[in-house]
Amino acid sequence: MVTREQVFEHVYEKYGTRPDYTFKQFPRYAALRHANNRKWYGLIMNVSKENLGLESKEELDIIDLKLAPELIQMLKNKSGYFTAYHMNKEHWISISLKDAEPSELFQLIESSYMLVMKK
Question: I want to staple 19 with a disulfide (CB 3.0 to 4.6 A). Which of 30, 41, 42, 85 is the partner?
Fold first, then answer.
């Protein structure tokens, strides 16, 4: 399990990123922006499990990350990984923070950061 705060601490220490709360109607949605080009490499949201295809109205903290389509195809078969909510389904994936293993999640954040840096 990973908390929002752990993600925020990690991305600040590694990339100097602070969460960007850009949506007034969704005050807990936090964009993670690349320092050089301001493009998003992550978006942390609290969404209903229904939005992820699960049978519950309970809210879940997720992170959307931009990854290579081949990697997304492999990850979608794992528990806690979902077709991207609120983003392009081919290039983004949603990951439950509750189900995330910290070292794997932080590696995927690194991949997303590097991918956005190239664009």
Answer: 30
pTM for the model: 0.94
Q: Which amino acid is at 82?
A: F
**Would residue 38 be called left, alpha or beta, if left means φ above 0 and alpha means ψ between -120 and 50 degrees?**
left
Is 90 exceeded by the pLDDT of residue 54? no
Instruction: Parse the chain into domains and list their residue ranges.
Output: 4-118
The gap between the terminal CA atoms of the chain, to the nearest Å, is 31
pLDDT of 119 above 80: no
* Segment among 4-8, 34-38, 45-49, 87-91 with least mean pLDDT: 87-91
The two structure tokens encoding residue 9: 């601490």
CATH architecture of the region 4-118: Alpha-Beta Complex (3.90)
- Do 43 and 20 meet the contact criterion of CB atoms below 8 Å apart? no
Continuous segment of H or E residues that includes residue 61: strand 59-66
